[in-house]
Amino acid sequence: MTMVTPTTSVWLVAAYALVLLGIGWGFDAMAKRVSRHAARWRTGKFVYRPDHDAWVCPQDQWLWPTSFDPSTG
């Protein structure tokens, strides 16, 4: 049995599929980077403390909700 070499169109379709795969991988990598960047930008270096329902800023100051009442707490 002899082996028949693929035609040019088969090679072009395979190359096109690989290019599309590479472009998809590139978009995925960019989306992950943008997502991480947006998450850092959104909160900065502030840290949310759910046990106190408050945020702590980089200078270690507590930021309480506007409806916080320390006398009830």
Query: Mean of residue pLDDT?
Result: 87
Shape verdict: rod-shaped
Instruction: Write down how many β-strands occur, each being a DSSP E stretch of 2 or more residues.
Output: 3
Structural Rg: 27 Å
Helix content: 40-55%
State the low-pLDDT regions, or none: none
Q: What is the tally of helical segments?
A: 1
How would you spell out the order of helices and strands? HEEE
Structural class: mainly alpha
Spatial strand arrangement across the major sheet: 1-2-3
Number of domains: 1
| Termini Cα gap | 85 Å
Percent of residues in beta strands?
5-15%
Largest sheet: 3 strands, antiparallel
Give a quick set of tags describing it.
single chain; 73 residues; mainly alpha; 1 helix; 49% helix; rod-shaped
Notes on the protein architecture:
It is a single chain. The protein has 73 residues and is mostly helical. The chain has one domain (8-72). 49% of the residues lie in helices and 11% in strands. It has one helix and three strands. A three-stranded antiparallel β-sheet has the order 1-2-3, with no helix packed on it. The longest helix has 36 residues, at 8-43. The chain is rod-shaped and about 90 Å long. The mean pLDDT is 87.
What's this, in brief?
By secondary structure, the chain is mainly alpha-helical. The protein has 1 helix and 3 strands; from the N terminus they run H-E-E-E.
Q: How are the elements arranged and paired?
A:
Blueprint (H helix, E strand, L loop, with lengths): L7 H36 L3 E3 L4 E3 L5 E2 L10
Antiparallel strand pairs: 1-2, 2-3
